[in-house]
Amino acid sequence: xxxxxxxxxxxxxxxxxxxxxxxxxxxxxxxxxxxxxxxxxxxxxxxxxxxxxxxxxxxxxxxxxxxxxxxxxxxxxxxxxxxxxxxxxxxxxxxxxxxxxxxxxxxxxxxxxxxxxxxxxxxxxxxxxxxxxxxxxxxxxxxxxxxxxxxxxxxxxxxxxxxxxxxxxxxxxxxxxxxxxxxxxxxxxxxxxxxxxxxxxxxxxxxxxxxxxxxxxxxxxxxxxxxxxxxxxxxxxxxxxxxxxxxxxxxxxxxxxxxxxxxxxxxxxxxxxxxxxxxxxxxxxxxxxxxxxxxxxxxxxxxxxxxxxxxxxxxxxxxxxxxxxxxxxxxxxxxxxxxxxxxxxxxxxxxxxxxxxxxxxxxxxxxxxxxxxxxxxxxxxxxxxxxxxxxxxxxxxxxxxxxxxxxxxxxxxxxxxxxxxxxxxxxxxxxxxxxxxxxxxxxxxxxxxxxxxxxxxxxxxxxxxxxxxxxxxxxxxxxxxxxxxxxxxxxxxxxxxxxxxxxxxxxxxxxxxxxxxx
Length: 518
What we know:
Elements: E1 2-3, H1 8-16, E2 21-25, E3 29-32, H2 33-49, E4 57-61, H3 66-77, E5 81-84, H4 91-101, E6 105-109, H5 114-120, E7 129-133, E8 141-143, H6 144-148, E9 160-161, E10 165-172, E11 178-184, H7 185-199, E12 206-209, H8 216-227, E13 232-235, H9 241-250, E14 255-258, H10 260-267, H11 272-276, E15 283-286, H12 293-302, E16 306-311, E17 318-321, E18 337-338, E19 344-348, E20 361-366, E21 373-374, H13 378-384, E22 390-398, E23 404-409, E24 414-416, E25 419-421, H14 423-430, E26 436-446, E27 450-459, H15 467-477, E28 486-489, H16 503-514
Parallel strand pairs: 2-13, 4-5, 4-6, 6-7, 7-8, 12-13, 12-14, 14-15, 15-16, 27-28
Antiparallel strand pairs: 1-9, 2-3, 10-11, 11-21, 16-17, 17-18, 19-20, 20-22, 22-23, 24-25, 26-27
Helix pairs in contact: 1-2, 2-3, 7-8, 10-12
């Protein structure tokens, strides 16, 4: 069965509104839909000239920049598979993903090229070519600016089947190693359409965002949602509370998509009341991690009420949302209801039987948004898609009105500022420190970040290790957001009757000690 190529929604908006402003990238430039589509077409033609074929993987290790968007759509336009990578990852993490995904091409930018160059110059490297934004030509290295100007601005997107993979996005898994989530053109297209329908998006909307462009939240819930209807997007290189408030006022934004940490910074800005009088938003979205009620309340008192939702990369990602202001009840601490009726959501017990209203079980999802599976991981795919439902690993319940409430996670995952962190990866690294006897990493509740990372350590007799040295060691070897915020030193860590290290007690101890200090 044929499906829409994800790049088609940019083409459609170009046909309908060619001279309308599509993208303003602050500090970089602006593009109409015609100019945006031209850039995407040049990338598509350039990729074909480099020999990139249907089904080949192309990895993007890019900061927030317009080129990340040009490549995202240009790769999919030719039927290749885009692999956006978290550009905060270090060599070891990046090497695992590139070895697993096997891209034929890696795209990076001069300012973040240090880690990719380590991979590209290593003896076992299998990546044929690297393109560098703001970079110079070299051995199998191509400077983006000279490269792209050689190619035509005309290109018709490749026809795709509904189960053809459009993108592979890596997310942490139960083994501690990232898993490549295979999202099809149908997955991404329909979820973008669902988001646009939920938001009642029109060509008159203007959105401001600074979310990382390697994240599914940004790619579907912002870009897909707005460009489905030829709306204008203002993107920022990084989040800054003052710059964001100024942009919301300057561009007369109608919508804003963020995470709890952003909303916390905005409502605590010293001039927030002055900006609140100038900003007239139609709707606001918060996701990626639960937004604490005090932040919701503070924002809602000054701006348009926040609509909180629930998503997961495996579902493209948006599943549940609280209704738009004036379109239904928005319940605090709830992630809402399915954004469209064709998304089925339920709560199952351990036997995969639906539980009663109000009972807690595992949140499961079914519908056209659910991933094809995990790249090269058949067993993990079968476990996650058991009986035709995606098993999220999140514990939840539904109230009598059909609103979902997330209570905890079955998987031992920490969500800090919207980023998933798997403790085992950090624990494995800490165990390489000679003075460490026992190590466990837990997440504790935090008002701003949602959760913070605490390393619980027992040292070998007669050994010493400072908190600063341990945190620095983690920062030097992992993405900074995975590093512990603080360290809990104990004589020995709590264990179960069988001798297994026991995290429940550690979470309670860590929460009691550090919970009020963040």
